[in-house]
Design a protein that fits this description.
By secondary structure, the chain is an alpha+beta fold. The protein folds into two domains: 42 residues, no CATH class; 136 residues, Nucleoside Triphosphate Pyrophosphohydrolase (Alpha-Beta Complex), CATH 3.90.79. The strands form two sheets. Strands 4, 5, 6, 7, 8, 9 and 10 form a seven-stranded mixed beta sheet that branches. A three-stranded antiparallel beta sheet has the order 1-2-3, with no helix packed on it. The longest helix is centred in the middle third of the chain and has 13 residues. It is elongated and about 55 Å long. It starts with a strand and ends with a helix.
Length: 194
């Protein structure tokens, strides 16, 4: 490895997300800086061990009685509008991915997990801007969708989609999709499976 981080400085002081300025040497041994957002504390954790557990969980739910994929349409401040995605949330300290997924799915949709199908390793989606990591939790669920358990800062509509409805949604170029959701939804539209 030719590139090396030499220093990290915290630029902001917020509870769930902060900016950090990293000084690093490039392949030609020239010092450069990069600013990124982080949910963790890269100042106190060795860089190569920082992502042993995810910051958040993304739940990919399939409703076993309705035989439909569950999505949410949620207002996202950074986008200034609504985004289609999967239920997701931060993993609390000491909480397992499965426990976090169960809690977040219920809070955002009112649905209950009946079976975990599979769990991804820690993955990253915007590593040019943030070191945020997630685990994808593919589950079967049941119950009646509701947003009654949403926090005041959440504006969520729960959607149950058939394979055909998923295909129709993907063809609408006005919709803003979370990248992970678009990939899974495209797979579901093509095959009927998650």
């Amino acid at each position: 490895m030719n590139m090396k981080i030499t220093d990290i400085k915290k630029l902001t002081d917020y509870h769930h997300l902060n900016l950090f300025c990293t000084t690093y040497t490039d392949r030609r041994k020239i010092q450069k800086q990069w600013i990124f957002a982080s949910r963790s504390n890269p100042l106190s954790i060795k860089t190569d061990q920082r992502h042993s557990r995810p910051d958040a969980v993304v739940i990919v739910p399939f409703h076993i009685h309705e035989k439909k994929l569950v999505l949410i349409k949620e207002f996202r401040v950074a986008l200034g509008g609504y985004q289609y995605g999967f239920p997701a949330g931060l993993v609390d300290e000491g909480e397992s991915i499965e426990a976090s997924g169960t809690r977040e799915l219920f809070e955002e949709t009112g649905l209950n997990i009946t079976r975990v199908q599979k769990k991804s390793p820690v993955v990253f989606s915007s590593s040019g801007l943030t070191d945020e990591s997630v685990a994808l939790l593919f589950v079967e669920c049941e119950g009646k969708p509701t947003n009654a358990h949403n926090e005041a800062s959440e504006d969520i509509e729960v959607l149950l989609l058939s394979q055909k409805q998923s295909l129709d949604l993907l063809e609408d170029r006005q919709i803003k999709f979370d990248v992970k959701t678009w990939i899974v939804l495209n797979q579901f539209a093509a095959t009927g499976a998650i």
